[in-house]
Amino acid sequence: MTQILNTQANTTLNGKVALVTGGSRGIGAAIAQKLARDGAAVAITYASSGDQAEQVVASIRAAGGKALAIRADAQDADAVRQAVNTAAAALGGLDILVNNAGAAVFGSIDDFSMADYQRLLAVNVTAVFVAAQEAQRHMKEGGRIITIGSVNSDFVPVPGLSVYALTKGAVASFTRGLARDLGPRGITVNNVQPGPVDTEMNPANGPFADTMRTYMATGKYGTGAQIASLVAYLASEDAAFITGANLKADGGFDA
Ligand SMILES: NC(=O)c1ccc[n+]([C@@H]2O[C@H](COP(=O)([O-])OP(=O)(O)OC[C@H]3O[C@@H](n4cnc5c(N)ncnc54)[C@H](OP(=O)(O)O)[C@@H]3O)[C@@H](O)[C@H]2O)c1
After folding, report:
1. Ligand 1: centre distance to CA 7 (Å)
2. Domain that holds residue 65
3. What are the record keywords, sorted (predicted)?
4. Is the CB of 174 under 6 A from ligand 1?
5. Would 128 disulfide with which of 48, 94, 99, 222, CB 3.0-4.6 Å?
6. Is 7 inside any structural domain?
7. Measured distance CA(127)–CA(114) in Å, rounded
8. 255 falls within a domain
9. Looking at the 3D structure of the chain, how many domains does it have?
10. Are the C-beta atoms of residues 177 and 203 closer than 8 Å to each other?
11. Residue 253 pLDDT greater than 80, yes or no
């Protein structure tokens, strides 16, 4: 009986194909693994962490799933487009796009460099547009576009985050507009906005962590797996009525 229940719990995405950008580490790796556990075939992209990307793929395959890693720097729009098409060709279509790849640079307006500004715009915003544009060409009714934004879209309690917040605000607005464009085709578009999650980008034992915890109702960093659960739900058929939503999973960071 337990065996049957476990099997049933892991079939919500059976037959679906997902692409998770930035799936080699952190939140993206947790999302890729969760979508695969729920039955999806999963492609991930990475820019430089090839070994870690292959480990994610190996762990999915070892559990009986189908996975593929594609090198595609999110700063390169052509590479992002190509990654979408490679994933669809290799895995037989595309049902779910998770725009997770992201970069953070902290700094005051006085000395924030144009190079950093352009990199954050390219990775956090332009790549999201490009991947969504290319992915929706492959999607049928039931398609899902999910972006990993940030609670900093709406709440910026410390200095030094203005450009990062700008990029995460942009994808929140893009989510609303794109939901209108794709709704008539039965494709949903949502934005998950995490608060502090323990990854290399924002380690729970890092220099800013104690300050971050003071803003949280729970006082505890989240995990990639917690974000992945919400993404997997949004990717499922059960979430067909949710679109254009900016959904926080932030331990009460902006409560
Ligand atoms: N951690 C948090 O507290 C937090 C909170 C709110 C929102 N977020 C958002 O959640 C997402 C994931 O963050 P994370 O904490 O998991 O970060 P992370 O641990 O730094 O991992 C980032 C992932 O994105 C990939 N990536 C970075 N730049 C890339 C590029 N130019 N092209 C392709 N892939 C790239 C990395 O792969 P490579 O190593 O191969 O570059 C890696 O797989 C980001 O969008 C971030 O803004 C994080």
Report:
1. 31
2. 2-249
3. Oxidoreductase
4. no
5. 99
6. yes
7. 18
8. no
9. 1
10. no
11. yes
Residue from 19, 21, 25, 124 to probe ligand 1 pocket by mutation (most atoms less than 8 Å from CB): 25
- Residue 3 CA to residue 28 CA, distance in Å, equals 28
CATH number of the CATH domain containing 156: 3.40.50.720
Helix, strand or coil for residue 38?
Answer: coil
CB of 169 closer than 6 angstroms to any ligand 1 atom: no
Give the 3-state secondary structure of residue 24. Answer: coil
Question: Does 254 fall in a domain?
Answer: no
Query: Which of the pair, 8 or 191, is modelled with greater confidence?
Result: 191
Phi, psi of 172 (to 5 degrees): -65, -45
Question: Span 71-82, mean pLDDT?
Answer: 98
Q: Is 221 a catalytic residue?
A: no
Six token digits for residue 228: 């992945």
Per the residue annotation, which of 46, 117, 164, 215 is the catalytic one? 164
CA of 146 to the centre of ligand 1 (A): 15
Chain center to CA of 98: 5
Distance between terminal CA atoms of the chain? Answer: 41
CA distances, 61 to each of 41, 88, 168 (Å): 10, 18, 33
